[in-house]
C-alpha cells in the first residue's frame, strides 16, 4: 500500500500551498494515468498533476509542461523500458497542439513573472546533457514570450544557468 501523501509532505510545510507536480520519465514507465488519477486529489485536496497546465499565483504564473513526449529516444530507442503513451499518441499532433497552447498561454499572460516547469532540462551540464528537442522546439517559444525562469528535474542536480543575452 502506498502511504498517504501527508506522510511525504508534512502539514508544517506550506500548509495552504498547492502540491503541483509535472510528469517525469519514470512516471511513463508504468501506468502513467495513476499519477493523473483523481484519487490522489481525494487523498490530499492540494495535489495537482495534469500533463500540462497553468497555475496562477497572482504575481507569477507557473506553466507546467509535460516534456516527456518531446524526447525522441523514448520513442526510437527505449533501452528496454516500456512507456505508457496513452493520451499522447499520435505524438506529432499532440506536440503541435501542446506547443501552440504553450505559446498562446505565455503570450496572453499578464503576470509579472512567467515561470515554466518541465521535467527535462533544456540546457544543462548534468550527465543527461541538453535536451536537443527542447532546445529546438520549446526554447524559442520561451524566449519569444519573455519567460523569466525554467525549472526542471531529471538530472537530479542543482544548477543555475542564465542566458547572457537577457
TrEMBL record:
Domain of life assignment: Eukaryota
PANTHER family for this protein: TARTRATE-RESISTANT ACID PHOSPHATASE TYPE 5
UniProt-recorded name of the protein: Calcineurin-like phosphoesterase domain-containing protein
A UniProt-annotated Pfam family: Metallophos
Residue ranges of every copy of the Calcineurin-like phosphoesterase domain listed in the record: 21-157
InterPro entries: Calcineurin-like_PHP, Metallo-depent_PP-like, Metallophosphoesterase_PAP
Xref: SUPFAM superfamilies: Metallo-dependent phosphatases (SSF56300)
Species lineage: Eukaryota, Viridiplantae, Streptophyta, Embryophyta, Tracheophyta
Location of region: Disordered: 1-21
Alphabetically ordered keywords of this record: Hydrolase, Signal
Species this chain originates from: Nelumbo nucifera (Sacred lotus)
GO molecular function, one term: hydrolase activity
Amino acid at each position: 500500500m502506498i502511504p498517504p501523501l501527508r506522510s511525504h509532505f508534512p502539514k508544517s510545510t506550506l500548509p495552504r500551498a498547492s502540491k503541483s507536480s509535472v510528469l517525469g520519465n519514470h512516471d511513463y514507465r508504468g501506468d502513467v494515468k495513476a499519477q493523473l488519477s483523481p484519487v490522489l486529489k481525494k487523498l490530499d485536496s492540494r495535489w495537482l498533476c495534469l500533463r500540462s497546465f497553468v497555475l496562477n499565483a497572482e504575481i507569477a504564473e507557473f506553466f507546467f509542461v509535460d516534456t516527456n513526449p518531446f524526447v525522441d529516444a523514448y520513442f526510437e530507442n527505449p533501452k528496454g523500458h516500456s512507456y505508457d503513451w496513452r493520451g499522447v499518441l499520435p505524438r506529432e499532433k499532440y506536440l503541435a497542439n501542446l506547443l501552440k497552447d504553450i505559446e498562446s498561454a505565455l503570450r496572453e499572460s499578464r503576470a509579472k513573472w512567467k515561470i515554466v516547469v518541465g521535467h527535462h532540462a533544456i540546457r544543462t551540464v548534468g550527465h543527461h546533457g541538453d535536451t536537443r528537442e527542447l532546445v529546438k522546439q520549446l526554447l524559442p517559444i520561451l524566449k519569444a514570450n519573455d519567460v523569466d525562469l525554467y525549472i526542471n528535474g531529471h538530472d537530479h542536480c542543482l544548477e543555475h544557468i542564465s542566458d547572457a543575452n537577457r
